[in-house]
């Protein structure tokens, strides 16, 4: 092979490698942008809908786990004790930490799980039910906090599943975005504001923790194992 031919081949190989690198880099950036856009879109709709915001420090209100531990989302992993037949029921404790007199709750979740339902109960010293979470035991009354979905589409063909309607799609995503049907989040809002438990004070009496039990149920079979994202949000009520 002549020197000129070898030099030309080396240049061609280098050009091909550069093109491949640019394509790989572009693909990686595109995936990261799409991922960030989808995550960021989840709660964007609230800005002009009068519903609730994700709470981030430094705020005068936050969502915490049992005994005030950090919690980013509800863990739906379960043990065999939490499953009867194909019915799974998990109970998770969370608290709202705030100095305000009242607050309001909202749930946002995807809809992959069959028969997904949930209830939220307020923890009370006089409660007749008990739950242990992360080594801490709480009493609660089994009277669920009233609320309703803001964008639920009653699908008659598959009534065991929840689906979001188009109410907030253009607020969550671009108008023409094609989103997998179960990835479109549904939003549930408590009907009334809730009283902060002023008897459970921390930080020298400047903040208070109000505890709740979130009970989530769904149907799971050996051939259907799905995962959902399940968020709890809170906002101060003036």
Structural features, described:
Keywords: Membrane, Transmembrane, Transmembrane helix. The chain crosses the membrane at residues 21-45. With 238 residues, the protein is α+β, with helices and mostly antiparallel strands. The protein has two domains: 1-41; 46-237. It is 18% helix and 33% strand. Strands 1, 2, 3, 5, 11 and 12 form a six-stranded antiparallel β-sheet that branches. Strands 4, 8, 9, 10 and 13 form a five-stranded antiparallel β-sheet that branches. A two-stranded antiparallel ribbon has the order 6-7. A hairpin with a 4-residue loop joins strand 11 and strand 12 (207-219).
- Mean of the pLDDT scores? 78
Number of strands: 13
**N to C succession of SSEs:** HEEEEEEEEHEEEEE
Number of domains: 2
* Low-confidence spans: 17-58
What is the rounded Rg? 24 Å
Structural class: alpha+beta
Keywords: Membrane, Transmembrane, Transmembrane helix
Transmembrane segments: 21-45
Short description:
The chain crosses the membrane at residues 21-45. This protein has 238 residues and is α+β, with helices and mostly antiparallel strands.
Question: What does the secondary structure layout of this molecule look like, with pairings?
Answer:
Blueprint: H1 3-41, E1 61-64, E2 83-84, E3 87-98, E4 102-109, E5 114-122, E6 129-133, E7 136-140, E8 147-149, H2 169-172, E9 186-190, E10 194-195, E11 201-202, E12 207-219, E13 230-237
Antiparallel strand pairs: 1-3, 2-3, 3-12, 4-9, 4-10, 4-13, 5-12, 6-7, 8-9, 11-12
Keywords: Membrane, Transmembrane, Transmembrane helix
Transmembrane segments: 21-45
